[in-house]
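#structure-requests
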Amino acid sequence: MIQYIADAFTDKLFTGNPAAVLPCREMPSPELMQAIAIENNYSETAFVVRRGKGEYDLKWFTPGGEVELCGHATLATSFILHSFIDPDVAEMHFHTLSGQLIVKPGPDGYTMDFPKGAYKEIPVTRDILDATNGLAKEAYYDGGDLIAVVESQEDLASMIPDFDAMSKLEGRGLVITAESREYDFVSRCFYPKLNVPEDPVTGSAHTYLTPLWSGKLGKTRMVARQLSARGGVLRVSIQGQRVFITGNAVLFMKGEIPFDL
């Protein structure tokens, strides 16, 4: 079995968010997928099974468990499939726990068609303030990631994360965001409950951030940057209940796992 590793949401090696991608003849057992994800210790390991040209089953595992949606590993999977398995496919249909996801290769990268994330404004509690160094001005949550808005990009960039405080919050993870002068908005994303303290670039978080900032800025097309140490740029847009996220990926390596999947 060949395993590929690609850096997503970047066109420069050693930046963006790395993901492992394993094309399989059939989907491995959950126990084996989890063991491989723990062994890899990337924020995501993707397992993909080809149903036919342009049709695939896709699952994502973090070191802490399976997730329903992952943007950067979907981007990495699309890049690997397009580069090595289905190079002439015009549209990729992935069957996932989040329903069917469509990815289209293009001259500017890979555009992912995702469902809009659900969110609603909630009070900024003491726990949210503790988890954001007292910076949170607004908060949003509706069963996915908890979103906190802070005053400035500079505040967000200099914030020192308190993972224990973040682990006490509701939600899969904590996404902290601010308006930006260079980009439309910036963010940092933390998932200590999934053994991913700070995720380098998080596509799924932008299913919430895109409609949130679209409403605030009055734009339907925006450019976002995630302010992790590796960093990454996402071109995002919204149409109705769908969020479109475009990015590039580069291959880091491919290697052989010495047993068959």
